[in-house]
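Subject: for your reference before the review

Hello V.,

The reviewers asked for a structural picture of the protein, and I figured it would be easier to keep everything in one thread rather than splitting it across files. Below is the amino acid sequence we used in the manuscript, unchanged from the supplementary table.
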Amino acid sequence: MKFRIKRVSEVIKRELGDIIPKEVTFEAKLVTIQHVDLTPDLKQCHVYISAIGTPEEQHQAIATLVGHRKELQKALSRRVVIKYTPHLNFELDDSIVRGNRVIDILQQIETDLPPLDEDSDEQE
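And here is what came back from the structure prediction:
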């Protein structure tokens, strides 16, 4: 069963990735689908979106997708034939931002550390 959910998730991700640029325009520079998560009954679909732009543009992108949800579901139902077309829930995926923040912190720690003195080990 899990394999089926994963396959349907990938199909929905691919089809939405094709539908959204044709149906919706955004203020954000780039809007992409990062991940699609389906409930086991295939009735709810959480679509995680990444938007490059200011925080206002990112939230506007989500609001735009939510406003076009019915049209997107209808277009999806024409392309993906399953018993129920899942209800689309759009959410902002900030994992890339969090990942960049972790990298920045690690680089800051690395620059703050004093250099290792290799000669000190030989003297002991």
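For the response letter, the relevant points are probably these. The domain at 2-113 is CATH 3.30.300.20 (GMP Synthetase; Chain A, domain 3). The chain has one domain: 2-113.

Happy to draft the paragraph if you're swamped.

O.
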